[in-house]
Design goal:
Length: 93
């Protein structure tokens, strides 16, 4: 069975937004630590980012606006610092 999803499907759009946020982090520093979750629905783009690089509200809103082409889409951004203890634990394995 082959599954084909329309490029404008919210999951595909969310993937493109997440990828653009990761690309932004890489444009700021070499080898950033970043994890991104994006949920689109009901007029809101929910972005949860855990990163060693700061991404501003304005940068996130610009990415969402560019990719979705919706200027009126509300962006909810939760930005948290990458957990340094997790980074150390992974390095020991």
């Amino acid at each position: 069975m082959i599954e084909k999803v329309n490029p404008s499907h919210p999951d595909k759009v969310a993937d493109r937004i997440a990828g653009a946020l990761v690309d932004l982090a890489y444009s700021k520093v070499e080898n950033p630590k970043i994890a991104v979750e994006v949920l689109l629905g009901h007029g809101v783009a929910n972005l949860i980012i855990e990163s060693s690089v700061n991404i501003s509200d304005a940068e996130a809103e610009a990415i969402v606006s560019r990719i979705t082409k919706h200027r009126d889409l509300k962006v909810s951004l939760v930005m948290v610092a990458q957990d340094r203890s997790e980074e150390r634990r992974v390095g020991k394995e």
